[in-house]
Design a protein that fits this description.
The protein is mainly α and 189 residues long. The chain contains ten helices and no strands. The protein folds into two domains: 47 residues, Orthogonal Bundle (Arc Repressor Mutant, subunit A); 128 residues, Tetracycline Repressor, domain 2. It is 69% helix and 0% strand.
C-alpha cells in the first residue's frame, strides 16, 4: 500500500482555490455548473482541476466532505451544551442556516447524493448525530423514534424552504414535532 504524500505548497493552494471556486460556481449554477467555469474562477487550467478532481462527482465529494466536516464541528460544539434539548435545537438551527446560505450547493448534494451517507459516516457526523439524539432521548426531551440521521434530513429539508417562507419558522414547527408529547401513535419508519 502506498502512502499519500503531502501536496506541495503550490498544489495545495491550487486545490483550495478550486474548492473555493467550485463552492461559488455550484452555489450559483447548481448541478449545471461547468468545470471550465470552476477553473476560470480559480485562475487555473482545466487540466489542473482534473488533476485534483478527475470527475465532477469527485469534486462534489470533496465539497460534501468539507460541508460535512463543518457540520460535524457544529455537532461537536452542540454536544458541549449541557441541556440535551438545547443541544439538538442549536445543532438544527446552525445546520439549517449553513444549508440555507448555500441553497444551490445543497440542491447539488441532494441530486447527486449517493455518496452522502458514507461521507457523513467517515467525517464522524453520523456518530455525532446519533449521540445528540441518544442523549436527548435519554433525558426524555426527544421522541424515541428519531434517529441521528434524521437531524441532517430535517436541516436539509428546512433549508430547502423557498425564500418567500421563513426556514426559521419551519424549524420551530419541526422542533415542536420532535418533542415527545408530539409523538405519533405508531413509530415512523
Amino acid at each position: 500500500m502506498t502512502e499519500e504524500r503531502p501536496l506541495r505548497a503550490d498544489a495545495r493552494r491550487n486545490r483550495e482555490a478550486i474548492l473555493k471556486a467550485a463552492r461559488h460556481i455550484f452555489a450559483k449554477h447548481g448541478s449545471q455548473a461547468q468545470i471550465d467555469d470552476v477553473a476560470k474562477r480559480a485562475k487555473v487550467g482545466v487540466g489542473t482541476v482534473y488533476r485534483h478532481f478527475p470527475t465532477k462527482e469527485a469534486l462534489f465529494e470533496a465539497l460534501a466532505r468539507d460541508k460535512f466536516e463543518r457540520l460535524a464541528r457544529l455537532a461537536e460544539k452542540s454536544m458541549e451544551i449541557e441541556d440535551p434539548w438545547e443541544a439538538v435545537v442549536v445543532f438544527l438551527r446552525e445546520a439549517a442556516a449553513l444549508q440555507a446560505a448555500d441553497r444551490a450547493l445543497s440542491e447539488v448534494f441532494r441530486d447527486h447524493g449517493d455518496f452522502m451517507v458514507d461521507t457523513a459516516r467517515t467525517c464522524g457526523l453520523a456518530d455525532l448525530g446519533d449521540q445528540l439524539v441518544q442523549r436527548a432521548q435519554d433525558a426524555g426531551v426527544l421522541r424515541q423514534d428519531v434517529r441521528g440521521n434524521d437531524l441532517g434530513l430535517i436541516s436539509c429539508s428546512i433549508a430547502g424552504v423557498p425564500p418567500v417562507w421563513s426556514w426559521e419558522r419551519m424549524l420551530g414547527i419541526a422542533l415542536d414535532g420532535l418533542r415527545p408529547d408530539g409523538a405519533p401513535s405508531a413509530p415512523l419508519d
